[in-house]
């Protein structure tokens, strides 16, 4: 009897509380179509993109080192082997030249392989297949043979892995006609662009970042839709500003946003452009921003010589936007040295937010 009375009291209290909430927030004020947001890590965004494309098209398959039973070195392919089996998620020996060649051959035969390199540093073992076989075949066949393949994996500097695991290949692969080169920053970038890359009829080099895999980003319901894709070749303005343009890709976008936040406190509003795609480059977005702000700083973790920043500078100089510049362009890049292993030296080789702040103040000639 005591239990029944207690339960009845709780029910009355709950009903009273609910009525109070309804009076304070009438049902009419709640929208069933509003965009909600959720936290999604980069690795999960990549995983869901591959999962949905494999489910949608049985020609899509994944191969690489430890991608199957181990769920991937960075857990990007977690659960895919259990769902799709040995025929569509394939563990390979540690021989990039071998499995990249198999992947290109499969693409030539009409399949849509996703070829994962455990690190893009060792894509150099397979660069002959990527460039001479995948990138050039469409042109050399007079447009008769497509090579729908995605080469993906972590690119650039990680942490404590020294020179042979810390190169950025954005400039290397962007130099080659026949390839599309993508360098995403956020979970939205990774999900939308990987789906587009897998559907693309041409070879795509998809440069992820190892240090970003565990970073969560807010994404909307639209981004998590199975129909969500992002166009290859379109940049995104991450922050609108009027005093100076900051252009970056991959992890360096976050560096620019941190610098922009600090500079905003001093009254300097930076426009931050996330390139998303390195080839083709969204030249229109770049030029329009420069013509608005009259100042430009490029930021990248790669080496300075023949880098992405160098290409952007050349495009601006050769365009009408050059006449709008009120100061020379400044590039902020990685140091022109192989990555040191020493923990105290490593941060000195990669652009930090304070380096971007200094570059902006130099361009604007402020203290």
Automatic annotation (TrEMBL):
GO terms for cellular component: mitochondrion. The keyword Cell division does not apply. It catalyses: N(6)-[(R)-lipoyl]-L-lysyl-[protein] + pyruvate + H(+) = N(6)-[(R)-S(8)-acetyldihydrolipoyl]-L-lysyl-[protein] + CO2. Its EC number is 1.2.4.1. Its main location: mitochondrion. Its cofactor is thiamine diphosphate. Residues 40-215 form the Transketolase-like pyrimidine-binding domain. InterPro entries: PDHB_mito-type, THDP-binding, Transketo_C/PFOR_II, Transketolase-like_Pyr-bd, Transketolase_C. Keywords: Metal-binding, Mitochondrion, Oxidoreductase, Potassium, Pyruvate, Thiamine pyrophosphate, Transit peptide. The keyword rRNA-binding does not apply. One of its GO terms (molecular function) is pyruvate dehydrogenase (acetyl-transferring) activity. It is found in: Mitochondrion. One of its GO terms (biological process) is pyruvate decarboxylation to acetyl-CoA. The pyruvate dehydrogenase complex catalyzes the overall conversion of pyruvate to acetyl-CoA and CO2. NCBIfam families: PRK09212.1 (NF006667), PRK11892.1 (NF008854). This is Pyruvate dehydrogenase E1 component subunit beta. The lineage of its organism: Eukaryota, Metazoa, Ecdysozoa, Arthropoda, Chelicerata. The gene is PDHB_1.
